[in-house]
Design goal:
This protein has 5 helices and 2 strands; from the N terminus they run αββαααα. With 88 residues, the chain is mostly helical. The chain has one domain. A two-stranded antiparallel ribbon has the order 1-2. Strand 1 and strand 2 form a beta hairpin.
Amino acid sequence: MKGALAALGEALSSGRWAMSPKNPRFPLAVAGMFDVIEACGWQISRAAPELGLTTSALSRALSEEDIVFRAANERRTALGLPTLHADR
């Protein structure tokens, strides 16, 4: 968990997601982001301020990588929430 939080802090920069998928810490950062979103019931509008992001910036971060976007939508579907739309 500590590694995920450190990587998440590294990924969040000035109100936007700033970590390349090529960065070896990318999976940890995504895990940290998912932990925060999970704690907010996968409500993007609730999770975004917790991450220091706008709702659109968080949606954009989730949609940048297909595997991340699919995982987010799978979790939302499992919770009975509507899927997110790609914000690309």
